């Protein structure tokens, strides 16, 4: 649940030593590994669906497990907080282990607070939320902003144990929160009140029974849309996406008025969900990011498209599960059919990736080539589609860069990524793939740093290197940074300056606090050098070069050549002038870069070797 500050300490405290003694009596066999197999993480389930300690569902009647019945003081803690309790556990973190950085993205946590009561801990246990950090002391009681990226590090050799309980709240808890203290804030006279624990367990506790909608109301759907759009990072496609979501919510309201939760309406609800989701992808929702570095499309799946109908379809089933971090709750964009076909049932035949530094004109080239017969694309860039696979987002890799190598393409990653691409594909007429081999076209500037990875995921991949005059690119990148429309990592740890825009290159930390012209020059040079190294390590038949200016001068000839090279063919007359691409900031002009000449020209000499090499590669 999103709250306004990273941490709030509640004005109560509990006898941690008595709780620890009670917990120590529980047989070790009742502790289970974390559902997502996080090293050093284990749990003792206290409240679960149906009271089954082995059930990790996030839907259904939440009831106490046998373990909670044997922990009277833990029950008394929960009763004293005055809430209706859902999924709850004792969470154990081994010495020198961590809970990796993640965001609680499942629908279940949209309106549920996560209450922490440390029981066994040390001063070396650090809890991080965004840029904030605190140490929760034994016996204290806390809530925190689970919508922000958070992490726990146990820097001690001792084991840490917290009571971790999820709740929508209650009269008692909301009163405590209103009297809570944000971490680090000094409030004169503020002191937690010790709550006695009798140890009898003779208390009344409310447990939740309703948590996943049968058919989501139109009012709830609109609430989710408003929340997510309010969290979105500015993006040129955002207004178009917003209009599509408004249209969807109106159509849903019409169906709700006719059917409500009646099963007779379920097929039409399901059809509308699939249509609405495909429309959101086509409008570019997969390209829009949120302030917490999670993709908008991913969260639309989690909050609406995957849970709005309880018809026990595949999306609904997946949404019931505990998903740690940014692991995708849905395996990509669902095809607009009631039966999803696995990507393995179709063969990706010579997929083509356009690679270039940002602002090189790749959107215009992509928007032109995607009109080729038999070509499928996801309709936009694949940032969230790729980085939504566990382990691939920079935040899960120490924020080092967008660089991915062949060894990052594990069998699990390959299967997930192929499926995510396959599910989102549409041809120029809006049709999903059939049973024939799939010809994929994709462009994302970050992929300039991922060529070995893409070759491992798609072994017969081909690449089009798009070259543009570096002076034009650097000028456009400067304006892109200044516009705020291309922010990729708004909360990059340790970064000083404008919010980080475009791709994250290796060595970015050296640029913190540097002039913007130095930053974009390093971005261009690094991306170009890395992609050329990777391309020139391939068989020459697997890649080709295109010069942006020659493409503009002869678009018909260029696309016909590329169509023949890729094996697509071409069947349209483009005319003499191409339309502006969707990401154009200002009308293009050959000498427009001179507005920034004083910043660009002094820096060209240092990168001249890469400038010359890029021109040669483009032919």
TrEMBL record:
Domain of life according to the entry: Bacteria
* SUPFAM superfamilies in alphabetical order: Clavaminate synthase-like, P-loop containing nucleoside triphosphate hydrolases
Which residue numbers delimit the Aspartyl/asparaginy/proline hydroxylase domain? 62-167
Signal peptide per UniProt: none
Entry's InterPro entries?
Answer: Asp/Arg/Pro-Hydrxlase, IPNS-like_sf, P-loop_NTPase, Stf3_sulfotransferase
Q: What is this protein called?
A: Aspartyl/asparaginy/proline hydroxylase domain-containing protein
